[in-house]
Amino acid sequence: MRFDNPASVAVTPARQLSYNYLVSVNLWLLLFPCDLCCDWTMGTVPLVETFTDPRNLTTLGAYSMIAVLVWVAFIENHRQKSAVVVMILCIPLAYHKSVDIR
């Protein structure tokens, strides 16, 4: 299993940091699919092992972007509110295919 998915057998902080980093990687690939790969095994995406790793900033940015979209969709009163809500509801459908859900 380490060969196919190194994050699944990593120690606890590295596993959570790596899985959260994969959220930002998959969102990036969803928006810009030019870097798609047919095989993501064997450590294609290196593990995030420490809290000081700069890739944690991309994770923070991805979750911040999601939070802003949810805020705009459900809290703010905009004319295009329904379009943003539909967009947010469609994201999990496209994102589901790129995530390792078991």
Automatic annotation (TrEMBL):
One Gene Ontology term, aspect cellular component: endoplasmic reticulum
Pfam family, one: TMTC_DUF1736
Domain of life: Eukaryota
Record-annotated DUF1736 domain positions: 2-66
GO process annotations (BP): protein O-linked glycosylation via mannose
Any one GO molecular function term: mannosyltransferase activity
Membrane-spanning intervals of the chain: 21-42, 57-75
UniProt keywords, alphabetically: Membrane, Repeat, TPR repeat, Transmembrane, Transmembrane helix
InterPro entries: TMTC_DUF1736 (IPR013618)
Protein name listed in UniProt: DUF1736 domain-containing protein
Annotated source species: Anopheles christyi
Origin organism lineage: Eukaryota, Metazoa, Ecdysozoa, Arthropoda, Hexapoda
